[in-house]
Amino acid sequence: MKKSILFLFALSLLNNVKADWLTPESLWKLGRVSDARISPDGNSVVYNIRNFDVQKNKGNSDLWIYDFKTKSTIAIANDSVNETMPRWSTDGKRIYYLNDGGSSQIWSMNADGSNKKQISKTTSDISNYGFSSDGKTVWMTMDVQLDNFYGKDKYPDLPKTTGKVYDDLMMRQWDSWTNGSYSHVFVAQMNDGIVGNAVDLLKDEHYDSPLKPNGGDEEISISPDGKLIAYTCKKLSKRDYALTTNSDIFLYNVETGATTNISSENTAYDKAPSFSRDGKSIAWISWDEPINEASKQRLMIYELASKTKSDITSDFSFNVEAIQWSASGNRVYFISDIAATDQIFYYDVNDKSKVNSIVQLTKDIADYSGYSITALPNGKDKIVACRMSITEPTEIFSVDEQSGMSEQITFTNKEYLSKFTLGKVEKRMIKATDGKDILTWVIYPPNFDPKKKYPTLLYCQGGPQSTVSQFFSYRWNFQLMAANQYIIVAPCRRGMPGFGQEWNDQISKNWGGQCMNDLLSSIDSVSKEPFVNRDKMGAVGASFGGYSVFWLEGNHKHRFKAFISHGGVFNLESMIATEELFFHNYEFDGAYWRTPRPISYEKFSPHRYVQNWDTPILIISNEKDYRVPYTQGLEAYSAARMKNVPARFLSFSDEGHWVLKPQNSIMWQREFFNWLDKYLK
């Protein structure tokens, strides 16, 4: 009787412990903070929180405000419609935002959330917008229909046909078929607080601004006086568009309607223009190598009067992202990945020697994903920024412009997360086969016991040139994996930014080379620990990480007992079905019919090693994934089953390269852990 009572008590404790660990469902209860904007007087921050209803399978975005004086937060727009993209008026008395109730339009309200009113009535949905500093001019982006590819448009007597007809490349991109609609930039004047008639800056032009699929308001900038608009555009079409990365910065004169290309000499990406506060200069991000989307991202500054430009980061070996001018104009802030963290830097405009002109401002074990700046009466900058880490989702921090010290000011998820025990995150340096150090994150289960042996996962990052930083993912969540009693090994292998351009470049045309050695070196090193169960190791990853898993399936030499590949490249030859062929040509060193035949197709294509496959594998490939066509997953699954390798195929008909819908995501997680638990526990 006593033993039974003790057993039930122990079971109760175990259940209570497990209840304190993250679950797939718990991740969808977290509010997702973004787009923090500081008021002109520096006293308040308006920001967005997106919450999800799993049962309704949808999310809703609301606007909140933080008051520095009272240190309080209140919701100022929390209707049943989505309210996004908050922006302050010049005097700080009103807040503009997008409201998608029926049609996505610009609204405004008092800073306390009162007196809401719609101020735009465009015929198309507004997707991005911004105001000049004087508040007199507004730019917007909207879609315009210019081409017809659908059979019902071509043959009006066949209204129910679903056919589409194309005569050239760029039929589809990422998750959408080309439908003849283009995103254009419009400009309008404000009349008594109302948006006036809008003028199309790209009228009749068959090009997009911002760039699809991921471009946003960062790709358009308006001068303080509203007379000039700088925008990003790739003015190429069809085959030329598919084969190059040559986007440019265009300058539109609002008064004359004239457009000038100010980056024409660079044949790689030029993106994200930003006017200085005095309107005399434009900064933007410029890639330094054509067709290589992972080439170095430089900070360029263009002087409008002299029409001269300078590469500010020529001696800086890391990438530049998210540029903003300081309120004084003496600094250009940006975010750069360094040593697997995303930090805020600045360029000191007054340091003409360039010796100490680039300064790292923040030095946290965290990722900064965005920030906002305003001027204080003393001439200093007041900065707020969005920050996250492997252990905490995004919250807003105040950042000191001199010391870089940060202080958390919002605590959206603190109460809810306090219910959970999270795992320890450890930074390790592991020797590669060539003697170089591989920074590797190791994440331990909650309540880790070094005397136990744990199943262990090798996490393979995608990109291929993206970093394993301090990100908090809502699907590839390290803490969720740890909560399921797995140790996670996440290496910063060759081909990741944050360790210099040479390190980043060592993956292109060499997918199955040193980068794979780095992955294996990392798992081999950690597996020597006594708490790692070497008989229960798996490897998981998506995109290039999915490719890595396919590659390892044929080359792991019995290290692993289970694999999961999501959206992975399996056959380099059939990857020609992707839409952005500049990527294909650069990474694989050309098409498979080129003479001499590029070595990638023979040496680095996972399908060449299927004869070695013998390990259970879950393959995930979604029907709307046009970046890595879902047929890649089908090929791999068919090969596995023809080899009689235990395999499972998971696909979502309404998802692309990612899984974004709540119920789909939860199902994805359940299948993920069901598969791992079956073979590793």
What do these coordinates show?
The protein has 13 helices and 39 strands. By secondary structure, the chain is an alpha+beta fold. Among the domains are: 31-119; 421-680, Alpha/Beta hydrolase fold, catalytic domain (Rossmann fold, 3-Layer(aba) Sandwich). The strands form 9 sheets. An 8-stranded mixed β-sheet has the order 32-33-35-34-36-37-38-39, with helices on both faces. Strands 9, 10, 13, 14 and 15 form a 5-stranded antiparallel β-sheet that branches. Strands 1-2-3-4 form a 4-stranded antiparallel β-sheet, with no helix packed on it. The radius of gyration is 26 Å and the shape is globular.
Helix content: 10-25%
CATH class category of the domain at 421-680: Alpha Beta
- Strands of the widest sheet, in order across it, are 32-33-35-34-36-37-38-39
Mean pLDDT: 94
Tally of extended strands? 39
> Quick one: overall form?
globular
| Distance from first to last alpha carbon | 31 Å
- The assigned structural class equals alpha+beta
Bin the strand percentage. Answer: 25-35%
Which spans of ≥5 residues are poorly predicted at pLDDT below 50? 1-18
